[in-house]
Predict the structure.
Amino acid sequence: MRRDTGQIFRLEDYRPTDFLIPELKLDFVLSPDATKVTAELTVERREGVAEDAPLVLDGDELRLTELLLDGEALPVERYEVSPDRLTIGALPKNGKFRLTIVTELNPADNEALMGLYRSSDVYCTQCEAEGFRRITYFLDRPDMLSVYTVRIEAGRGQAPILLSNGNLVESGELDGGRHYAVWHDPFPKPSYLFALVAGDLGSIKDGFTTASGKKVELGIYVEHGKEARAAYAMDALKRSMKWDEEVFGREYDLDVFNIVAVSDFNMGAMENKGLNIFNDKYVLADEDTATDVDFANIEAIIAHEYFHNWTGNRITCRDWFQLCLKEGLTVYRDHEFSADQRSRAVKRIAEVRTLRAQQFPEDQGPLAHPVRPRRYREINNFYTATVYEKGSEVARMIRTILGGELFRQGMNLYFERHDGEAATIEDFLKAFEDASGRDLSQFALWYHQAGTPNLTITTSHDKAAKEFVMEIEQSVPPTPSESRKRLMHIPLSFGLVGKDGNDIEVGAVDGATVEDGVLHVRKRKHTVRFEGVAERPVVSLNRGFSAPITLSFAQKPQDLLFLARHDGDLFSRWQALNTLFTEALIKAFRGIRGQKTSEFDPALVEQAGLTAADGELEPAYRALALTLPSEADIAREIGSNIDPDATFAAREALSIAIGKAHGEKFSSLYRELDGCASFNPDAASAGRRALRNVLLDYVSVAGDDPEPAARQFAGATNMTDRAAALMILAHRFAGSTEAKQALADFEERYSDNPLVLDKWFQIQATAPGAGTVDVVRSLMSHKAFSLANPNRVRSLIGTFATANQTGFNRADGEGYRFFAEIVLAVEKRNPQVAARLATALRSWRSLEPVRQAAAREALLSIAAQPDLSSDLRDIVERTLA
Ligand code: TRP
Ligand code: ZN
């Protein structure tokens, strides 16, 4: 593994390479433990570079077996080689030459899952960010664009399928039962987009004709026998291709587009040019094995990787500091796609919940960094919620500020200007400035400054003067190494809601620019005066979550209730109820800590019932509205001195109060939503299932009765209903006969399907209470579990640490000790997965003192290990700093 060297990479140190590699020929002779890779690089010294400049190529754990310059073996004194570097001096005076590099790899041994590795007997690659250097010595950086020709040779029996980027140009038989294929990708690309797949795979094929009439062959490759489970992914792919033409004017550009699903994969999926490789979790689905959430994730990730073809591949990143140029923008594009395919309001609420759950704690903790970081020690650790999700919010804000028309023109200009290039955030912003004539220099701080901005709001109404005044004050909290923050440009969407529930038409406004319902906050303080406001309005702020900020606004409970009933913006209507829930839960938390019992406001409990039964709202929306803030949400709002047992108890109490108040109503609603004979994964059907399952949870907790969930489990005809019922049984009725029976049935039914058993692992790992540590430890010896498979590790260990507040944060520290031990065991095989796992401890400072000390001990025990990987050392040291 790549050991930590302490080296820090800085944005300001960027400089172009001395050499270009316009062409690269790769030849793979595949064998599980001795694969021979011959790389032929056409090299050109860049103009103006000194003749004696050496060529320094990156490597990582490589073994060089041959090196030729212009076809002649290079004598050993002409170069220096180590596993991680190849330096060649005294190069031809004219600066043009051909370099042939032969390396030998052991893919079967590669458990880091970067470079060339084996997954279930299939050869596959993962090169982003710096995996290509584990295949051959190269200028392994995103601004080095080359045209690739790839020849793959393997035994036909073991690997009848041979795939790489671009178009297939040649294939044939060889002696000894071997065969080969040659792929050529005409689009110059960086090495991180290279991919190869070889193995015995099944496939489904389809086709797509682009707007300009080009025919594209589509293929999805999966393990034999799983072909039928790829149908939904194929459908999502075709819809993505169509949508990108319609909404962004982007067509596909090669003759083929292939997707391969593999079961050992470090992340979700990878956008290799013309050959996307996926974690099979995000390809395989049918009603018996996948939940509605799985279907939605597949649709979103298929779209995401496909959209990278333009935002990432045709226009790539100059350096890894610009990662959000492709990731933030592509997440924004996949969000918009899902919003168009499903329900915009429901999608927006789900996005914001994810942002708050994942990105806010990052921004508010020791790992905070700007959307475009300025320094890193290990780039693998910057595939973060900040780069992806906040990056997407920043793209969305550009659209909000410019409006749809100018945003589209800016995007078009960006595509025109930078197609075929490796670009920067500055290039991206310049395209919008030039297309719109607007100055985005203050707005650019969203890329450069870490931390979640806060707006403090106070309002007043002067009836006589018919004036409504809103005082706004912005602040950005300090983050590591950025103690002083500059003022941001925050687009705040809002409405003033009148007594009848409709927005008031506002007259003249003074104190800030307001355009199309968006107030532009740019200064520290704004006093905004709205004229012609006869009655006191209820203000609805940050509609649609127009900016990724927090609000400090002591809005009256009756105003929030009013918004929860009437806000014309459905996001804000959801937000109003959610804020009321959060406030009630914080109050309950404090009551529990102070050993006082408190009652919940009956008006709030009543509103939950009204929302549940409101037939004007989609079921999916009602399901989200009735989902209480999570324990982590409550903890984040409280901020410090967290006792997870108390946040848990507070949430339980509110669940019970709502469930008891509406027992009959919820039961009958639950029954009414029942009965849809044939399964449909569409958003409307999924929404009905979501609402039904939320109701089942309330009914179960209020009645303190496992029977309804046991009945649903037994009769379930799809995974959504089955998994939801199992979760209720295992969490709320742990140890009951019903729970034990259901867990055993599920295990038996899916014993040969590890992806489905992941759900079984997850459900058990998230069961609340101090006893879960032992359950998780013993599940590690289950025959389906493997420390080498990232999906298994994330399902059992990852969810335990991130989604089990009471179990993981046991007061005696046993959860943390266990976790540290497993992180170190995973690191031995796969540092990238171990480092990501370790981020579960990032909020340790917000815990109460006893747990805080125990969590710190666990972090220190990791940090004390000698020879940590750069991945884990980086996370642990920043977390402790
Ligand atoms: N670029 C990929 C995406 O967002 C994610 C990715 C980055 C990745 N590094 C990876 C995937 C390593 C797997 C392994 O679409
Ligand atoms: Zn991506």
In short: The pocket of zinc ion (ligand 2) is lined by residues 304, 308, 327, 330 (CB under 6 Å). Residues 9-200 form a domain with the Immunoglobulin-like fold (CATH 2.60.40.1730). Residues 121 and 749 are 25 Å apart (CA to CA). DSSP finds 27 helices and 33 strands in the chain.
